[in-house]
Amino acid sequence: MPFLPLARLVATGCLSALLLLLTNSAVAQRSPFTGDKRTAINEADLKRDLFAIGGDHFRGREGGTLDELRASVWIAEQLRASGLQPAGDDGTYFQFFHIQRTRLTPASTLRIGTHQLRVNQDAVLVAPTNASVAAPLVYVGTATPAEVAKVDIKGKAVALQISGAPTDGISYRRYLFAKLRDQAADLLKAGAVAVVFISDAKAQAIYEHWSHIFERGRYGLPGDANVKIPASQGPVVWLPATDASWAQQAGQQFTANLAVETFAYPSVNIVAKLPGTDAQLKNEYVLFSTHQDHDGVRAPVAGDSIYNGADDNATGCAALLAVGRAFVQKPGRRSVLFVYHGAEERGLLGSRYYAATPTVPKQAIVAVLNAEMLGRNAPDSAALLGSQVPHRNSPDLVNIALAANQASPKFKLDTEWDKPTHPEGWYFRSDHLSYARVGIPAICYTTLLHQDYHTPKDEPERINIAKLANVTRWIYLTGWAVANQPQRPALDPSFKLER
């Protein structure tokens, strides 16, 4: 079948024509994908690579640590062994960049009444700040802002019980974090010198799962506003529900001596390529994206201190290795680029850096296919982020991906998570976002959240390998079609994100 312009296919709704491009065309017949175990995308290889990168050996691959760097060297060696060429800096597979970190110093102290609290262990500091405070603590319970306004809080530390629920459709976790930030800001503006939040039962569940993210401080790229040393301001403390009995007692003194430090250290993107076969199209790139980092080693949960991140995102790492081997077997007309981003868990830092300073001309990147958590939940379900307005920045690319899914593996696609009304705001939480923001067609493949997300229970043994293989084939088929189309996927000129 001759190739037709994608815009025409989309305009006429000819999904069947797109399917033909993937299943019956001469290009598709050149593809190494057949679906059996002898292909480059097979369960045995995926399982081997998943257990290697997602096992305890790399200690959770925390961004900016030696564990992340060791894992990155391992990935680069697999890319080299598969036949992919280096496409990082200075003829290597690596593009190094700096993470800027701002945190409380280990010498910082916090005391409430007779309770000496270890900073970010017994009590969470919501934001690193320089502060020296000695003030009486006043407990206002679940008082409304109007009720608090009647209390003399000037020059005092204010303790309050967390209460309330979201009314605008966001998740409770996002609501809670916004509450910690915004309600504290209002109280400090009204004259309080410190704010102490005490968890209720619902907030305690979030405290137990998520409070560890505050202990490291804040991360960004050098120059980011959030990692500059802040001016002295009142500390905001978050206590577990188990402290409620003593934290609300009258007549206590709040004492804090907090100091902030900031420093930079390296993270890394791993970049590999394979040239295309077409004299003209080989100057353009289909970029396959994922991230290699996770949360590292933290306080033990049920005796396990390693946050392996098997699904998040060793599955993506294994998938890209398999896709790379498939392209080595049969190169496409366009070149392909594989980017493993560092420090994604620190705020998409690696992809932000690469999107701003790519190792190939930015205008030569025709599409980004991002792999994020590919191996959990129902075996026949998945999601494609960036497939719906306002998140869809290329109808062409989305239609190719949808056609690839219909060709194989025919997942039932969950569209709720891509909507701007979804409480988790999932579209904004993976590396495709960095590329969409700079005007490159971008989509994200994912099998969505689960109860082990960002816990030590995200282990390789819990991954559905057959499902991982099917998602990997879907990613490959999409990329194969993009690599061989005469036209690059067009951007939607009206694309504009809601935030």
Automatic annotation (TrEMBL):
InterPro entries: M28_fam, Peptidase_M28. Residues 1-28 form the signal peptide. PANTHER family: METALLOPEPTIDASE M28 FAMILY MEMBER, PEPTIDASE M28 DOMAIN-CONTAINING PROTEIN. This is M28 family peptidase. The keyword Protein biosynthesis does not apply. Transmembrane segments: none annotated. Keywords: Signal. Residues 269-475 form the Peptidase M28 domain. It comes from the Bacteria. It comes from Hymenobacter telluris. GO terms for molecular function: metalloexopeptidase activity. The keyword Signal applies. Gene3D superfamilies: 3.50.30.30, Zn peptidases (3.40.630.10). GO terms for biological process: proteolysis.
